[in-house]
Amino acid sequence: MTEMEIDSVQDEFARQTQSFMQWFRDLPGATFHKDIQMVDLRGHGAGRGIIATADIEPDTVLFTIPRPSIITTTTSSLATHLPSIFSESESEGDPSNDAWTRLILVLMYEYLRGPSSPWAPYLTLLPASFSTPMFWSDSEIAELQASSVVSKIGRDSAEGMIRSRILPVITSHPSVFFPSGDRPSDDDLVGLAHRCGSAIMAYAFDLDSPDSDSDSDEGAEDGWAEDRDAQRELGMVPMADMLNADAEFNAHIHHAPDFLTATSLRRIPAGEEVLNYYGPLPNGELLRRYGYVTPRHSRYDVVELPWGLVEPHLRSALSANYGVTETQWGQVDALLARQREEDEEEEEEDDETFVIERTTPDPESTGLFPPTPQPAITALPEDLTERVKKFLKTVSKVSSSPELKDKPTRTKIQLETVRLALIDRERQYPTTLEDDEFFLSSVPNTPRTNKEMAVYVRAGEKRLLRETQAWIAAELAKLTSSSSDNTSRVRSREGEGEADTPSAKRRRT
Ligand SMILES: C[S@@+](CC[C@H](N)C(=O)[O-])C[C@H]1O[C@@H](n2cnc3c(N)ncnc32)[C@H](O)[C@@H]1O
């Protein structure tokens, strides 16, 4: 780009910000604190953001967003044109009737209205393109290596959903969506739907009902859309969604019946960015939904460990060290299959995965991390421990080895086999942690390019795998020293019920 072209892009960016600010200030009931300002943070790879221009005290209302200015299925006029789709009673069972699909339709409708949409100045601020992996090339996605994020990108399923649930609604109502008669091609509509879907993913709020004056974030993290399929009100909240975010933050969105407010959680010094919170997301998930990663989110990193990596090590350890025979394996498999049927445990399949994560304290009410405890591995996932225990107990029923009746022995087998599975899991990534750290050593503190972000994600996962292996090694050492110190005591407890192991905090991914 020539300097003149750069200037004109910058002018356009500033002009759009200005016209949005004017539009926002003119909304009946909207407020915007005099000591904050919307700024251009593209130099930091963060688009627009809001900064404090003077020191701000805790509990200060930073801005107020009147509910009617939020784009939802009730505030947009699309609902009046398509009552059959938007009225709950009439649309029951309709595949386009979920909060996610309906908001995509609403957003597309408002985009297609152009300048006549009441939200036109706001819509121009939403990105036309996204840096989320959904839009990466195959070679960029390959840089995520064995991260489980890869299987969650879902471009094909999004495309399928758009073609089967969004396009038919739009093309069968041309007078609503294309009143001027100018109908974009199907491919253009699919492109717009992708754009709206990604905007919802990175910008939409999961709105508390206007009837519940709530600060409660139960179920949804800080009001951000979590469960995309649930029948809940999702909305695009102008200004609230201009706040960037981090795992340490200084502002909070409060949902009141008639308006939403952004409030400071602590003193925000002049020059500091006002930051919201998107939840305790691992960097992989932050990248998938929002297209960026930050060092502070690393504490929430996760790795998925499939049962398929654990079971072979259990089987070979039990065959080699405890003499379990082929015939006995046949009996074990039959017993396990029967138990599965009796328990109706659908999840307990070969492709079941377990989420390895650190035990991490929640941020304090100021939005800062508590100084202690530091995030650390304190246990293996409870569901993994349970599954291994069940497996070992079943084997001990058919095996003649007396050692398998001994709880410390079973714990040792469990730890050793999971450690081997973790090593296998780490080997699924084609590069080592050391390779990745070498690459990252020449990258600025906050990675920006797709490759940098991908390496950051996969390195974080490898670090977690190493930490878990180190934790297991320490547990095994404790077990060995306590068994040599207390052989007699351990023997006297043989056959006792298994004590509860500490459980890692469970988190959905
Ligand atoms: C709700 S919007 C925030 C406003 C956005 N910066 C804009 O200009 O429209 C969320 C998007 O902002 C960007 N973002 C938010 N927090 C960020 C951060 N800490 N670092 C970099 N980008 C960030 C990401 O692109 C994300 O998808």
TrEMBL record:
The lineage of its organism: Eukaryota, Fungi, Dikarya, Ascomycota, Pezizomycotina. The keyword Disulfide bond does not apply. The keyword Transmembrane helix does not apply. This is Ribosomal lysine N-methyltransferase. It holds the Pfam family Rubis-subs-bind. SUPFAM superfamilies: RuBisCo LSMT C-terminal, substrate-binding domain (SSF81822), SET domain (SSF82199). It comes from Echria macrotheca. Keywords: Methyltransferase, S-adenosyl-L-methionine, Transferase. GO terms for cellular component: nucleus.
